[in-house]
Structures are given as structure tokens and as C-alpha cells.
# Entry
Amino acid sequence: MTDPEALAALRRDLARLLSGLFLGPPTNAQVATLADPDAREVLTSLLGEGARAHLAALADPPSESVLRETFFALLAVPGWRYKPPFEAVYCDARELDEGSVGGLLLGESTQAVGDAYAREGFALGVPELPDHLGCELAFLAALSEREREALERSDSAGAWRAVDAAAAFAREHPLRWFGAFAGRLATDPEGRWYHHLASLAEALARASAARGALLPLRRRR
# Structure
């Protein structure tokens, strides 16, 4: 697939799908999309060969009931298995009486992500902290849709502005912590499916950042 508008729509749809899978328990329809062989090949061409193994693992999911139980245990209900899906937990430290403490919510990253949304006029559609992994993916989806709309009306400058915004955001936020989050998910005996899902999200963020590297080349033409 080489049509720029179609590729932007594909990036949008993948980011939306991944966002939904981290913001709520998975449905059979969502899981089936990742299990489709044709979809896996298209997504591999979009994200690179490094994504192939993660896509293959996602094609053999546990049952919907197991995934639902795992979602709440790992991502929604604080407990011994809980893996917080928030950037601040992985990237920020706070000075408290006992010294520098990491792993807390509502850090500098939370504000920085919210500021990035505000600069682009993006409003969260869910009652969640802005640095939730699902929200960061929703923002990338919105920027891909902005790119697609600009291409549809032959506004190349607008399309590249959207690419630039997505690349900068991916470098400054998702790529700082999606990998570490995926690593934590891998430590749970039943969290491997979500580990591969987070790794796929990291691959999408990496692809977004790489596209931004094309901007200087384009501007020199």
C-alpha cells in the first residue's frame, strides 16, 4: 500500500484500535482484527519486520473472558498484579521528605502531555489522565486523521504539520516509556498478550517518530 491517504487512515485505525484495547476490556471484534492474516501482513508493512513476532503472538489470544479478567487485573484495578499505564509512573520523580520518589501519578509528564494536547486542540473523550497509554495513542490517531484530511484536500503543508506534530509527540512521550511498560507486562504469567500489544504500540510510535525524520529532507527539496 503506497497511497498516502490510505496509509494515514491505516495509522489512524491502528492507533484507535490499540487505544481502545488499553482503555477498556477487549471485545472479540477487536481481537479478531489483530488475528486476521491479511491485516497482519499490512501492519507488518506499515510498522516493519520488528512488529511481525508481536502480531503473530496477538493472533493467538486467550478467550475473551480471560482477556477481560487480565485487563482489570493488570490495567484497571490497583492490586498486586497492577501495571500502571501512565507515563508519569515510568518517567517522573518527585522530591518528598524521604527523598526522590518515582512511580507516582500526576507528575510533570502528566502536565506536559496535557499541554501537547492543548497546543493541537485535542480534547480527551474519556475521563482519564492525559498520560494514560490509551490517551496518548488516541492523540496519535487524531493526528493521523488530521494528516488524512489534509491529504484529501491536497493540503500538503497541513499534512506535514500533522506528521511533524505526531513525530515530536512520539519522541517526547510514548518512546520514553512504552517499552518499559511492555517489559513490565511481560513479567505477569497471563500478561504476555498485553505485552505484545504494548510492544505493537511502541512500534507504531517508533514509526511515527521515524516519519518525522523525513521532514528535513522534504524541506531541502
The mean pLDDT is 91. The chain has one domain: 4-220. The CA atoms of residues 1 and 7 lie 7 Å apart.
